[in-house]
Write a sequence for this structure.
């Protein structure tokens, strides 16, 4: 299993890093932390995520949905 951790400052960075996984066949997980090292969101290679990574607009929508939830939980970046 591939397990990567990224530090990000805006949503475009998250989309950029996730786009690297759209053709990866093995299991993976990508954790995204703010500049303080706090975990904000994680994505893994489930079927829905793989499908949404095929389209850049769907990838952005998926990222914004999860980041909205993270903000409601008090996460910051």
């Amino acid at each position: 299993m591939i397990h990567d951790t990224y530090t990000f400052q805006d949503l475009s960075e998250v989309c950029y890093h996730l786009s690297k996984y759209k053709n990866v066949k093995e299991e993976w997980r990508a954790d995204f932390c703010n500049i303080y090292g706090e975990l904000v969101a994680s994505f893994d290679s489930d079927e829905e995520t793989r499908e949404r990574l095929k389209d850049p607009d769907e990838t952005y929508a998926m990222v914004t949905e999860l980041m909205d939830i993270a903000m409601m939980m008090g996460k910051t970046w």
